[in-house]
Specification:
It contains 12 helices and 5 strands.
């Protein structure tokens, strides 16, 4: 009961933080039988696109999880990045899902930046909402929730990767993988660690799908839905404990991520740096030679005539 109260209080607090700045915006409303859309007036066409795309995203989620979506979400479209960040906080994301309200908030200004599209973003956030309905009382670990949502939406998260696109390989090589227990309740606030948490979540679920098939993921979800603990769900569904699964996944990462492969992936960057070093060295050599030549000439000029 205490855990229920804590989870509910956290959801309500997040809802108040997110929704309060929205009241200052002038919003239009649109809807279909399946989805409600609130949007700033310049985004009327985008809102119509959401209404068009939603049945497709919904059908794909239902097909993936073999279960119906029994709720009507509200999608809020925000026109510019600054307003979106005031609403959601200064996080490097392009959308958020507020599960307690079946709410999706999307930064429309980011929807034309690779790899984000309106459909994929909508599908990813809808998956978060679906999982909240499917698995009650917050029993789904944060890393599993995020990993499954990426797995179900073409491997795309809501996170802006920026310069952190190789963070998982780097963490593997330096043995700095975040333990899954540490990202079961929440993700880190530090930007680099946050990116690593997202990448780990995606990688673990892809590993599960590769080793046990999509049915393995669905079986674990069904067991969690029936009230099993995380460890019990993995043990009964996959025949391996959560800790053993994590160790196998880490070993899988170590096997496929070696210094040789990492350097091969970055061959052009390495060659560019080496070329820059060689050019700098050659330039310094020329300068030194010129100075030596000049000094030699000065010495000859200073000698007395015989």
């Amino acid at each position: 009961m205490t855990r229920k109260i804590v989870v509910l209080s956290s959801c309500l607090l997040l809802m108040l933080i997110l929704l309060n700045p929205l009241y200052a915006l002038e919003m239009e409303n649109g809807r279909s039988e399946e989805v409600i859309v609130r949007f700033e007036k310049p985004l009327t066409k985008v809102a119509q696109e959401v209404i068009r795309l939603y049945p497709v995203a919904r059908a794909e989620i239902e097909k993936t999880f073999r279960a119906p979506i029994g709720f009507i979400p509200t999608v809020i479209l925000i026109r510019d990045r600054d307003t979106f960040q005031r609403i959601t906080g200064s996080r490097p994301v392009v959308a958020v899902a507020v599960s307690a309200e079946d709410l999706i908030i999307i930064d429309n200004s980011s929807m034309k930046s690779y790899p984000f599209t309106l459909k994929v973003t909508l599908k990813h956030e809808l998956c978060h909402l679906f999982l909240n309905h499917y698995i009650k009382e917050g029993s789904l670990p944060r890393w599993l929730n995020e990993g499954i949502s990426q797995w179900a939406s073409d491997g795309i998260a809501e996170l802006v990767t920026g310069r952190h696109d190789n963070v998982l390989k780097q963490a593997t090589l330096s043995d700095r993988i975040i333990p899954l227990d540490d990202i079961s309740k929440s993700f880190p606030e530090d930007e680099r660690a946050l990116h690593l948490a997202y990448e780990e979540s995606k990688s673990v679920v892809e590993y599960i799908s590769g080793e046990y098939g999509p049915d393995g993921i669905l079986l674990v979800l069904d067991l969690l839905r029936d009230g099993h603990s995380v460890d019990s769900a993995f043990l009964s569904g996959l025949g391996v404990s959560a800790s053993d699964l994590e160790e196998r996944w880490r070993e899988h990462l170590r096997r496929k991520t070696t210094w040789f492969l990492y350097m091969s992936d970055h061959l052009y960057q390495i060659l560019f740096v080496l070329a820059a070093i060689l050019l700098t060295y050659a330039f310094i050599k020329v300068i030194v030679k010129k100075r030596a030549y000049k000094d030699e000439g000065d010495d000859e000029g200073d000698r007395p005539a015989e």
